[in-house]
Each structure stands twice: as structure tokens, then as C-alpha cells.
Design goal:
It contains 16 helices and 30 strands. It has 672 residues and is an alpha+beta fold. The relative contact order is 0.10. Belongs to the glycosyl hydrolase 65 family.
């Protein structure tokens, strides 16, 4: 789609937001920065011990900004194009335009690039000069950097992070090559137009940095560096295409969410590069004191993952492999707290050890362990990828989580049920409570999945898994027919964020429509309106499930107060506090579209669908939903649902898909 007025995927402005945190980010799976910022981050590169570990600031040569010399203030414009994955700044002066483009390359993931193009608009022949302002200094508070010899015209620095995450642990090394940045650029007397390219390559080894820089130079010399990035980004966008006919603000929010979330995932063709997880503010944020230091939370597994799974299962697998790689750290966490198996950290960085600076969360907010396992279960049901579980460490993780939950429960003689005591639920206004409904329900789901998976893999499963899943207490008020948040919760008590409503979705805990409604009615009015952005999407999903379309829309609308102008950067809290580029909120918002409007539910035997659109939305088209190795194009209007298999599973044992209506009518879905 072309740039221009009214294009919901291009965000333009004539001035930048006053708060630099709200500038757009340019990111790929390995590198990320905010535009005009003098630092960037590289995936998995943290410095600092335990609770102080944070993304290491790498100095960025590409935080430069153009300025037109002379007193007159020229017309300026800024644009984030989500179709091309490119940010641009244009200066319009009498007689010429100067345009700067910035992007994180989407197939050369160790490369970021910036270009400046000056073009004459008239017949004049005098030189045209544009100044480049930069705060770049080749040093860092987090890295011990040394200079190496220049390479192909690039300057070179390298060095290790200062402090390992755990004592004696690894200190990642960073190698960086960059094109020297002059203070100004001049279009000569006889030139009509000229483009200057500035490259920065960052990698964990000298060889990879040099290889990426050389590849970038070759493409730049052929005039195809930006084009190769756009091609890779467009292929990703096409493969994850979600289109909506509805209000412009909703369509813009959708494109913004897709841009920022897809920027954070590994590209389809980089299996050799280990993935380091997604933090709430993404790779561009997470310096010390900012955006939770770049740590990974349940935000990744519960809020972002389901969208990535439906649109790009290869990237979903890479996220799970991050959790498998950090399993040893999770085992250490469990041992240190006196339990068996593996306890995933509330905040995770490179090792899987707990890096939350405040002890209470790591000790009590244990639902994270079940959240991680639910992502594995959703992946298994959607892909039937046995290799992940049989050969790549998935089963060991599932088994360790089941062991943890069994060791964390205690038997109540009085109630003849298992209890989990002394926890903090997702609602962080309460701590040290017993039997959090969400925590216990997610533990039950973990144990049930471990049992089913063991059977499928023909492995022995301890009987206690099934027994404890059956006998764990999930608080329920028989009189009021709703789920109290924990033992002793009094109706009306304020709640920080979505908690019990998550039992309905994504947990799909068995309950009647009446109970589902009562949970929504009970918690909607007492949930803090200043709470985090992902909360309202889960209320919206609940109301869509019950076909209460107006109520769903009024909840979804609350999300818009977390979306900032002009670049659709989300803030965690509507007052602007908390994390920025808040991918967690975007993940919740996308789930309303991908699971709420469609009614998609991932179960062990099928992908259920039951669409519901609020007023003002007339059509939703998902071009490439992945299910059991097939790609489906799903188009939903108010009149019909159209499904087409655009790519059938190449796996012979997979039986062809069928669409089954509630009436029992069956429609075989074959390719095309």
C-alpha cells in the first residue's frame, strides 16, 4: 500500500512528541533503538548482577538528526511507515528536499542502516549543505570497549559487559562496526541528487559483525540495501496480514500493534541465531531504570505469544526455545525456594535465574510458571510439533513444571483439597494470599497438559499429576455463582488488573455462561481504571464471548487512552507512567481482534470459531492463520465466514481439515 493521506499504516507528523520516550522504535530480532537516540541494544546483552541486570547500552552512531543551516526554519515532516518498516525525516527547503531514513534490517539482523538523500527541486547549481547533529561517543557505562583497526572504511570497537548476571557467569561480548558520520553533507554544484548510506553492524563475534557490514556495503553499492530490507519486512507483514473494515482509529491501532510486535520476533530464516525473549518494552528499551530493565515476564507468554502463534508458529517456537534454554536457571530458582522441578522467574534475563529487584514478586507471583507452560500447550495443540518435545527439550520443561506444582501444593484435611498458599495473584494489590483462583487454575491446567503429553509421547506419568489436578481448590462462591479472587476475597475490593477474568480466556476454565457473566460483572467495576493497558482487552474478550457487543466495545475503547500520538506508541498506564512501547498492551489488543472478533479458541481437538463484531466493524480478513501445518485465509463479514486453505500441511499423517458447524454439518477444507 502506498504512503499518503488516510493510509492507516503510515503515521505522519510535522512535530515530534515532547517526551522522547514516545518516539517510534526501529527494531529487529537482534538490534533495537528509538529514533534519534544515542544508544541501541543488542538481544541477550545484559550487564549487572541479579536484580540490577539490565540491557547494556551500546553507543549508537545512528541517533543522528539532520538540520538545515541558516536562520529560516524549514518545513519538516516525520513518518513511520509500517508497510516498509522504515522511519523517515524530511526537510523541505526552497530549492531542495533532504530525507533521512532509518531502519533495522530485517534479513541482515546484525545491521541497522540510515540514509540521507538530498535532491534539488529547481535549476540552481550552488552547493546544498545539510548538517548532521549527533551525540554519539564510542563509549558505554555498561561495556568495557576497546578500538580495533578500521575495516572497509568502518570504525571498529569491541568489548565485554562489565558485570555478569550471576557470579562466574558469562559476560557477553559486543563487536560494532560503523560508517564514520561527517558533520555535514553537501550536494555538489553539478549534482541533482545524491544519497549517503551510514551502516552500523553489531554482533557477538568479530566475524559476524564484519560479514554483516560487508553484506550491507555490497547491497548499498548495488542500490538495493533498503529494498532488500523492505522485501524481507513486507514478506513478514504479508505472512501475518490482518485487515479490518472499521473505524480509522481502530485500523491505525491494529497496524501500529502489528508493526511493533512483529519487529520484536525472529525472522523466518534465522534458525542459527538463538532468540532471547521479548520484554514488555521491546529491545529498543530496557536501559537501567527503564522499562523493567529489559527483563522478560509473563507478558511474553500470556499476552504476546498467542498472536504470534496463530500468525507465525516458527517465531512462537523460538520463544519457547528461550524458555527451554533457561530451564536450568528455573530449576535453581525452585531449589532455592525449597521446591522440586522448575520455577520460572517473575523477571528473566539471560540465565533463567530470578532477576526481579524486589523479592516479593519472585517469591510469590508464581503463576508465571503455569503461564509459560500454557504457551507450550497452545503451541502443541496448534502445531503437533513432536520434535520440540521429544528432541529439543520441551518434555523436560513440561515435566519439571508439573513437579514444581506438586511440590508447591499442600493437602487440606479440612477441605479434602490441595491448596497453594502464600502467593501474589496477577492482581498485584494483594499478596501472601491463599488459593488465588488464577494461580490454582493455571496449575491445574499445567498438570492436565503434562499428563496428556506424557500419554501422547508414550512416557510414564505419575498418577499424582492427574490426582492433584482433580483435587486442587479453585475458589468458587456457590451462593453468588462467581469466582472469588482468592480465599477471603470480599466483593468490591479494588483489583489492579485482569485476574479472575482470565479464567474464561485464555485459561478456558470450565464454567457456565452465567458464571462467566458474574465474574465480568463482579470485577469490571472494581478494576483500577489507571491499571495496565492489557486489562481492558480481556474484559472486551469476555463480553464478546457472551455476545454483549456494546459492552465489549466500551472496554476495548479504554485501550485508546494508552496509545500515544503521533506514532501509536503504547504506554503501560493511561497517565503515561510505566513501560513505553508497551508490547503487552498491544498483545492484549491484538488478541481481541484475533481471538475475540473471530471467536477462535485453541483446544486439544480443534480450533473453534464463533465470530462477533461490535457495531462499526463490517469485515475482518486474516490472510495466513497457521493450524496443524496448514495456512488458512479467513474472511469474516456480517453475512458469512469464508475459509480457504492456501497451503496444505506437507506432513502426510495430517488428515485434511474440516469445518464443522454446530448443526453437525461438515465441510472438507482442501488446498485452494
Amino acid at each position: 500500500m502506498a504512503d499518503g493521506e488516510g493510509d492507516p499504516g503510515v503515521f505522519t507528523a510535522t512535530a515530534l512528541p515532547g517526551d522522547p520516550r514516545l518516539l517510534p522504535t526501529v527494531t529487529n530480532a537482534f538490534l533495537g533503538t528509538r529514533v534519534f537516540r544515542d544508544i541501541l541494544h543488542a538481544a541477550g546483552v545484559y550487564s549487572g548482577a541479579a536484580g540490577d541486570t539490565h540491557r547494556a547500552d551500546v553507543p549508537s552512531p545512528l541517533g543522528l538528526r539532520m538540520a538545515a543551516p541558516g536562520a529560516r526554519s524549514p518545513a519538516q515532516s516525520f513518518a513511520l511507515n509500517t508497510w516498509t518498516g522504515t522511519f523517515s525525516h524530511t526537510i523541505q527547503s526552497p530549492g531542495y528536499t533532504a530525507t533521512q531514513q532509518l531502519y533495522a534490517h530485517h534479513s541482515l539482523v546484525h545491521l541497522m542502516a540510515c540514509s540521507v538523500t538530498i535532491r534539488r527541486l529547481d535549476g540552481s547549481t550552488h552547493p546544498v549543505t545539510v548538517q548532521l547533529q549527533s551525540l554519539f561517543v564510542p563509549q558505554s557505562q555498561d561495556l568495557h570497549l576497546s578500538s580495533g583497526p578500521d575495516f572497509q572504511g568502518a570504525h571498529y570497537i569491541y568489548g565485554q559487559t562489565l558485570v555478569p548476571e550471576v557470579e562466574g557467569g558469562p559476560r557477553p561480548t559486543v563487536h560494532m562496526l560503523w560508517t564514520p558520520i561527517p558533520q555535514s553533507l553537501t550536494l555538489g554544484e553539478e549534482e541533482r541528487e545524491r544519497c549517503w548510506q551510514f551502516l552500523t553492524a553489531v554482533a557477538g563475534s568479530e566475524e559476524e559483525a564484519k560479514r554483516s557490514y560487508s553484506a550491507g556495503l555490497s547491497l548499498a553499492a548495488a542500490g538495493s540495501l533498503h529494498r532488500s530490507h523492505v522485501r524481507a519486512w513486507a514478506a513478514l507483514r504479508r505472512g501475518c496480514s490482518v485487515e479490518l473494515d472499521g473505524p480509522l482509529a481502530l485500523r491505525q491501532a491494529l497496524h501500529g500493534c502489528l508493526y511493533y510486535l512483529l519487529s520484536a520476533i525472529p525472522p523466518r530464516d534465522s534458525p542459527g541465531v538463538p532468540f532471547h525473549g521479548i520484554s514488555p518494552g521491546g529491545l529498543s528499551n530496557g536501559t537501567r531504570g527503564e522499562d523493567y530493565w529489559g527483563h522478560v515476564f509473563w507478558d511474553q507468554d500470556t499476552w504476546m505469544f498467542p498472536n504470534i502463534l496463530l500468525l507465525h508458529p516458527g517465531a512462537a517456537r523460538a520463544i519457547l526455545q528461550y524458555r527451554i534454554r533457561t530451564l536450568e536457571g528455573a530449576r535453581r530458582n525452585a531449589r532455592e525456594q525449597g521446591y522440586e522441578g522448575a520455577k520460572f522467574p517473575w523477571e528473566s534475563a539471560a540465565t533463567g535465574r530470578e532477576v526481579c529487584p524486589e523479592e516479593i514478586y519472585g517469591a510469590q507471583e508464581i503463576h508465571i510458571t503455569g503461564d509459560v507452560l500454557m504457551a507450550f500447550e497452545q503451541y502443541y495443540c496448534t502445531t503437533q510439533d513432536l520434535k520440540l518435545f521429544q528432541e529439543d527439550g520441551g518434555w523436560e520443561l513440561v515435566e519439571a513444571v508439573a513437579q514444581y506444582w506438586c511440590s508447591r501444593m499442600v493437602w487440606s484435611e479440612e477441605e479434602q483439597l490441595y491448596h497453594i498458599r502464600g502467593v501474589m495473584p496477577p492482581d498485584e494489590y494483594h499478596s501472601q494470599v491463599d488459593n488465588s483462583a488464577y494461580t490454582n487454575a493455571v496449575a491445574r491446567r499445567s498438570l492436565n497438559f503434562a499428563t496428556v503429553l506424557a500419554r501422547d509421547l508414550l512416557l510414564p506419568a505419575p498418577e499424582e499429576w492427574e490426582d492433584r489436578a482433580r483435587k486442587i481448590k479453585v475458589p468458587f462462591d456457590e451462593e453468588r455463582k462467581y469466582h472469588p479472587e482468592y480465599d477471603g476475597y470480599s466483593p468490591g475490593e479494588p483489583v489492579k488488573q485482569a485476574d479472575v477474568v482470565l479464567l474464561g480466556f485464555p485459561l478456558m476454565h470450565p464454567m457456565s455462561a452465567e458464571v462467566r457473566r458474574n465474574d465480568l460483572e463482579m470485577y469490571e467495576p472494581v478494576t483500577d481504571p489507571a491499571g495496565p493497558a492489557m486489562t481492558w482487552s480481556m474484559f472486551a474478550l469476555g463480553w464478546l464471548e457472551l455476545k454483549e457487543l456494546q459492552r465489549a466495545w466500551s472496554q476495548l475503547e479504554k485501550c485508546f487512552s494508552n496509545i500515544t500520538e503521533p506514532f501509536k506508541v503504547w504506554v503501560e498506564n493511561s497517565d503515561g507512567s510505566g513501560a513505553v512501547n508497551f508490547l503487552t498492551g498491544m498483545g492484549g489488543f491484538l488478541q481481541v481482534i484475533l481471538f475475540g472478533f473471530t471467536g477462535f479458541r485453541i483446544t486439544r481437538s480443534s480450533l473453534l470459531f464463533d465470530p462477533a463484531f461490535p457495531d462499526g466493524i463490517t469485515k475482518l480478513k486474516l490472510s495466513s492463520i497457521s493450524y496443524l501445518g496448514n495456512r488458512l485465509e479467513v474472511t469474516i463479514t456480517r453475512e458469512e465466514i469464508r475459509m480457504e486453505v492456501t497451503e496444505a500441511s506437507w506432513d502426510p499423517p495430517a488428515s485434511p481439515l474440516e469445518a464443522v458447524l454446530e448443526s453437525g454439518q461438515r465441510f472438507p477444507l482442501e488446498e485452494g
